[in-house]
Fold:
Amino acid sequence: MEYTIYKIKKDIIDLVVKAVEQEIDAQQLEVTVPPSAEMGDLAVPCFYLTKLLRISPNQVAHELKEKIHAGGIVKSVQNVGPYLNFFLDYKMVSKKVLKEIDKMGATYGSVKLSKTEKKKVMIEYSSPNTHKEFHVGHLRNVALGSVLVNLWRYAGHQVIATNYVGDIGSHVAKCLWALEKFHQDEQYPENKGKYLGKIYTEAVNEIDANPEFKKEADEVLQKLEHGDKKWLALWKETRQWSLDEFDRIYKILDIKFDKVYSISKMEKPGKKIVEELLQKGIAEKSEGATVINLEKYNLKYFLLLKSDGSSLYATSDLALAQAKFKKYNLDESIVLVDTRQSFYFEQLFQTLKVMGFDKPMVHVPYEFVTLKEGAMSSRAGNVVLFDDFFVQVKSQAMQETKKRHDDWSEKKTEETAEKIALSAIKFQMLKTGNNNVIVFDIDEALSFDGTSGPYLQYTVSRINSILNKEKPGVFKEINYNKLNTDLEKEMISKLASFPESVAIATSDFQPSHLTQYLFELAKLFSSFYQSIPILSSEAEVKNARLALIVAVRQVLTNGLTLLGIETLDQM
RNA sequence: GUCCUCGUAGCUUAGCUGGAUAAAGCGUCAGCUUGCGGAGCUGAAGAUCGCAGGUUCAAAUCCUGCCGGGGACACCA
Structure:
């Protein structure tokens, strides 16, 4: 299905191409939106045509304006300086767009692909380390990744949402070492995942302060990798504590994975690959460690295996890449990891290429979350744990909800508050572009005003409140001519551009385009709601306006669903 | 030192495959109750788009250099 917005733009290009009366590259023509509505609904800048026609852009616009015959969706054309400005027949646009949204419902904005276009894509995200705390930095990854999964599915692709858990490595060894050394006979608290995080922090600090401890922790890692029964048993037990903790958090966030990989399973095959590379002479030994020389790609040396023979991320990542493609026969692998690892991934991908494993793999980087006081670090003990954060936002939402609905049951209040809190949290993580560092600000997170998840939910609730009082009539009876105020027109063109907005968010891996779009649509609705009566207007007008707000609700709902945010009937 | 990234209003950001008067949120100030939910709406003040060159009919946007913040660059993950 090709959306109306694309058809309209194509029609306009066709009109211009036809009027030019000679061979031109239609690709060079673009359709833009004029700065103000009085100037037109859409415009084509004529600069490209000046070279061809050898007259000034203003003249081009002037002459073409004469030759273009309005008709169909284009009501009239004007030339303003070097621009051809098109005025659309809004009755037709409204009808097409609103009917399209009504017909497609929850699929409006999505794409259906043919078998040949459809890709099988793995999106790997979250990928937390066990034995460590789950903080708001991890939250950004989860928020982004889950939306990317939704977006790529909406774009018609088959997506395997994957989590790659860091369940082994020196961080695990350090944690277990400290657990054994300092907490032998301790009673474990209820939240064991969190407890492990604390032990890990303690381990890091102890090792910092006493360099001789590093050796002890390294030995633990050696034992783990060589299958020492005692340590393995402790590892298995504690690993599960973390996994349970993650599952609890994913459940709160409503996140699901199709496949979970773990480093511990990739470590052995990884070592085997490294061994082969060494034999083939692709990798080499250096200071006891195994490395690959990537200097001719300007990627320095890449460390594949430590000198004591224990594995690194790189070791298991080589195996993971092969395992993924082998098991799923992927067309593409997308990995979401923060930007600090960009160079690492360049090295990793180049190494795979050198090995002859040349598959489409992309690393999607994003900036990390930091605090006003500086970077979060377990070492400094200044991490904002997801749990603590969630509790705060939720209690804020509880308060606000109680203020508005003191007659609600505790259960209803809590359920509503939880949805509001989640929307606030997710939206805050998603509204900033991937390349911007988020300086975590609890006050901002607790504010439900302005560009926020709750604001969008509130908009939907207001629409619901109207529609609960009166349903719109049947669609074919609607007189679209009645949607003639500027705000209504703006809303309709905004609704029409939803598919474009989703498409850009998808191809750029930037959910922030979508958050931006949704906020703008909600804002338009709020202005409209304030200034234009709906229920009290004359029957024909009312029906048209009801149809319009049904469409707005549908688009807001589709967008919010993509963001993993639930809408509410009342809040 | 090399590479990556960011620099737009007091603060947080949008716009960045070049196009018309740089757009929002927060904050500040002034307003909005006989109507559909004030988690809202309207208006005002507030920007030499870090600096300097270059390309172009046209630069916040592209190129180069510089300045400033953040990050990465071999046994951490």
